[in-house]
Specification:
This protein is an alpha+beta fold. It has six helices and ten strands; from the N terminus they run αββαββαβααβββαββ. The protein has two domains: 85 residues, tRNA intron endonuclease, N-terminal domain (MutS, DNA mismatch repair protein, domain I); 90 residues, Trna Endonuclease, Chain: A, domain 1. Helices cover 36% and strands 26% of the residues. It has a five-stranded mixed β-sheet with strand order 3-4-2-1-5, with helices on one face. Strand 1 and strand 2 form a beta hairpin. Helix 3 runs antiparallel to helix 4 and helix 3 packs across helix 5. The chain starts with a helix and ends in a 5-residue tail after the last strand.
Length: 184
């Protein structure tokens, strides 16, 4: 039993919360998060930079310890509150991210595409092939105008990806709607 606990402690990655992102320590465990599971982006100094949704996911899964500026561990609930202050739509985005990750998809940010996330098919890593979808998380109570819907559809079409709307309900369950162009 003690050996299992030691192994679990060794896998824990320590990181630092820096304003709008989280940066890991320079360690093999941190680099393995990126190499094996495609979390974050490697930096020149051997660390891995994570988005807030990636960091919260790893914190919830018990794979990461996040420290504040005083080297004090941040609990998941406190990290969630901080992330929600920085990103007003954080909870909805996180629900979609978590659901897709739990289903085995690689999820990366897609800000340069004008979307929240880009999603790679199961077993595909960025660089091996292109993402299959661009994803826009929305709350079920939010309204989307035809103009906004059309803009999202144009983003997907111009990037040659499928449009996926992740609709989050009050229980944090996610329903997906895929939208594609069809020729009659």
């Amino acid at each position: 039993m003690a050996k299992k606990k030691e192994k679990k402690e060794q896998e824990l990655v320590t990181s630092l919360f820096l304003k709008e992102r989280v940066v890991t320590e320079n360690s093999n465990a941190a680099r393995e998060l990126n190499n094996q599971s495609v979390f974050g982006t490697p930096t020149a100094d051997g660390k891995v930079q994570l988005s807030l949704v990636e960091a919260h996911y790893l914190l919830e899964k018990g794979r990461m310890k996040i420290l504040d500026g005083r080297n004090k561990a941040i609990e998941p609930e406190k990290f969630l509150r901080k992330a929600q202050k920085l990103e007003p739509n954080f909870w909805v985005r996180y629900c979609v991210y978590k659901d897709l990750r739990n289903r085995g998809y690689v999820v990366k940010t897609a800000m340069k595409f004008g979307a929240d996330f880009r999603v790679y098919d199961r077993g595909i890593k960025p660089g091996e092939d292109h993402a299959k979808w661009v994803v826009f998380p929305v709350h079920e109570a939010s309204e989307l105008t035809w103009y906004e819907f059309s803009a999202k559809n144009r983003v997907a079409h111009s990037t040659r990806k499928r449009l996926l709307i992740g609709c989050v309900d009050e229980e944090a369950d996610v329903t997906y709607w895929e939208i594609r162009w069809v020729r009659p």
